[in-house]
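Lab notebook, bench 4. Still working through the backlog of constructs that have no structural model yet. Next entry is a single chain of 331 residues. Request: give me the structure tokens for it.
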Amino acid sequence: MSAVLDAGFEQLYAELAQTRLASWLETLPAQVQAALYEAPHGKRDLWLATLEQLPALNPSSVDFTQGAVRMGESGDLSSEQQAQLKQALEVFIPWRKGPFELFGIEIDTEWHSDWKWERVAPHLAPLKNRLVLDVGCGSGYHLWRILGAGAQQVIGIDPSLFFLMQFHLIKQYAGQQPVHFLPLKSEDLPDFQGNGFDTVFSMGVLYHRRSPLDHLQELKNVLRAGGELVLETLIVEGDQHTVLMPEDRYGKMRNVWFIPSVAMLELWLRRLGFTDIRTVDVTATTTAEQRSTDWMRFESLADFLDPHDASRTIEGYPAPVRAVLIATAPK
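Model written out:
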């Protein structure tokens, strides 16, 4: 399909072969090829051409430990090259998760994903030398932050070819890093039989799944025994019998199915055998964290809330509140 994409996948396969996840290689390459070719996007050729024509630049430094994932500085390229790079970045608008900074170009994304990371990171088991999976990774912002925290290998999955292209644009300037994106759904993941990833993230995915317990089981299946699950999702107030199922849309989103209370979410995890379950953060989403920008020019949170009562969505449901739960896979 593309030299850029093919090289990335080959690097991943070579790295996987050296880990306990090597059995995945029996099915993974065919899954990737099917995902790339079976449902082509109308703009795929434009995206691939943009990736192939990126200016060849060598960043003087990279930094995956700060709020904005940064590659290079403005002094690393000419004004002509910077204009060419900015034009390429604009092909991939909207940029939803970030922020990023490439060679002095600041990509102010719709979401301040760095704020979410700051809420999550203090509660994690050390990521140093871990094999880490991020399910529903979007364009990959948190993959870079996980690498910055010392992970041995980081893999993100998301079925969106658009996010895959955004990720590879960023990776083009990151050097040979053990960070990878697979265009897969969580349903495509294997059962590693207790010998999978050390840490698995699922952030902003659960409420999009028609069967939330099946999703939690998929996450359990890809963890090693005693591995850590990091789960972030929308919640509502209530006891272990409380769950909101929208009549139709929630915050103008059609694909929202189950929004449980924290107590119900903890019950779901217990029923599936997770232990050491902790709710480490509960935070209301604000229009400072999610908003329209020059890099995401469509509607955002302010348009999804009741204009007369910001505590409700435009449909009358409780406004978005997100919880972070951490749990341990059965040993």
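Notes after review: The longest helix spans residues 3-16. The chain is about 30% helix and 25% strand. Flag for follow-up if needed.
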